[in-house]
């Protein structure tokens, strides 16, 4: 499903404005010279493009490229990269990390920021709820999963030793609470010790037998609309269904007959001899996709 263009344009303009005001309030007239950001999981790249146009140095990386990168944002450095948060050297040259609806990477942003350098800061805008290696599970049923997730991210920021600000942005989104780091609660002499401690924090909040393996998203977008289904399989299913529905109907009958009717669940049971479940179970619409791909009309 494509993102509503009008929504993401207004939203990214708002986020860019927020970041520009934040950076200028911290660094004054030197903001453009000091800030060197990377938007991890930059998506369409609009946020990176706006910040670049405002003379802020920075790049964007995402697990897959977008056509809009070359057609509209060719002046910005947007790269396809399967970012692994345990390989922090890939972002070691940046002093600001941006996580704008960064999904699986959201809890990792404070960790990566800490591991990159003592002076590296982050901005994270949580959306989809993930812990370090799996979907986030709500610990408190009295709160929404979003509120529980915000509390989880805030607790992580604290455990990683950041001074921070939790703020609600004025953007057209229901997920508009962000976290911005502002230095550390410890001094430089404890920095190396905190880096060691951070790995233990990741393990503490990781599922799957206390591992800290990052759940990487596939760079391939699965096709679930039935357009890639096996044509021979679809033809076989349609032929069998046609025979079932037209059983007892003869082309020599003087009166036209539409055949019989049957609930689709009953049809599926009659098709038990055809091995199709593995191919259809991940398709939106299931077996109905086969009927859409044929010239025979089913009502």
SSE arrangement:
Elements: H1 5-27, H2 31-34, E1 36-40, H3 46-53, E2 57-62, H4 67-71, E3 77-80, E4 96-100, H5 108-116, E5 121-125, H6 145-159, E6 162-168, E7 177-184, H7 191-204, H8 231-245, H9 264-270, H10 277-280, H11 288-292
Parallel strand pairs: 1-2, 1-4, 2-3, 4-5
Antiparallel strand pairs: 5-7, 6-7
Helix pairs in contact: 1-3
Kindly name the structural category.
alpha/beta
- In this structure, how is the largest beta sheet organized? 7 strands, mixed
> Treating each run of at least 4 consecutive H or I residues as one helix, how many helices?
11
Helix content: 25-40%
Regions with little confidence, pLDDT below 50 for 5+ residues: none
Output the helix-strand order.
HHEHEHEEHEHEEHHHHH
Strand content: 5-15%
**Strand order of the biggest β-sheet:** 3-2-1-4-5-7-6
**Apparent shape:** elongated
Rg result? 26 Å
Could you tell me the number of beta strands? 7
Mean pLDDT: 85
């Amino acid at each position: 499903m494509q993102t509503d263009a009008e929504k993401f344009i207004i939203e990214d303009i708002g986020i860019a404005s927020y970041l520009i005001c934040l950076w200028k309030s911290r660094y004054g007239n030197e903001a453009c010279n000091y800030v060197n950001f990377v938007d991890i999981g930059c998506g369409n790249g609009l946020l990176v493009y706006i910040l670049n146009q405002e003379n802020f140095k920075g790049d964007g990386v995402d697990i897959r490229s977008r056509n809009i990168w070359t057609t509209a944002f060719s002046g910005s450095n947007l790269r396809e990269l399967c970012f692994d948060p345990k390989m922090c050297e890939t972002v070691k040259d940046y002093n600001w990390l941006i996580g704008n609806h960064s999904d699986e990477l959201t809890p990792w942003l404070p960790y990566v920021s800490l591991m990159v350098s003592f002076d590296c800061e982050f901005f994270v805008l949580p959306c989809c709820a993930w812990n370090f290696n799996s979907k986030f599970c709500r610990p408190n049923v009295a709160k929404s999963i979003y509120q529980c997730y915000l509390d989880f991210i805030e607790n992580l920021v604290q455990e990683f030793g950041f001074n921070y600000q939790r703020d609600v942005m004025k953007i057209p989104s229901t997920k508009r609470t962000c976290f911005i780091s502002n230095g550390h609660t410890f001094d430089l002499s404890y920095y190396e010790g905190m880096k060691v401690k951070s790995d233990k924090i990741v393990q503490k909040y990781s599922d799957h037998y206390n591992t800290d393996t990052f759940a990487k998203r596939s760079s391939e977008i699965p096709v679930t609309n039935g357009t890639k289904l096996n044509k021979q399989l679809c033809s076989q299913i349609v032929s069998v269904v046609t025979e079932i529905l037209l059983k007892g109907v003869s082309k020599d009958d003087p009166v036209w007959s539409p055949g019989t009717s049957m609930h689709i669940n009953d049809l599926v049971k009659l098709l038990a001899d055809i091995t199709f479940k593995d191919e259809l179970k991940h398709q939106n619409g299931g077996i109905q996709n086969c009927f859409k791909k044929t010239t025979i009309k089913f009502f």
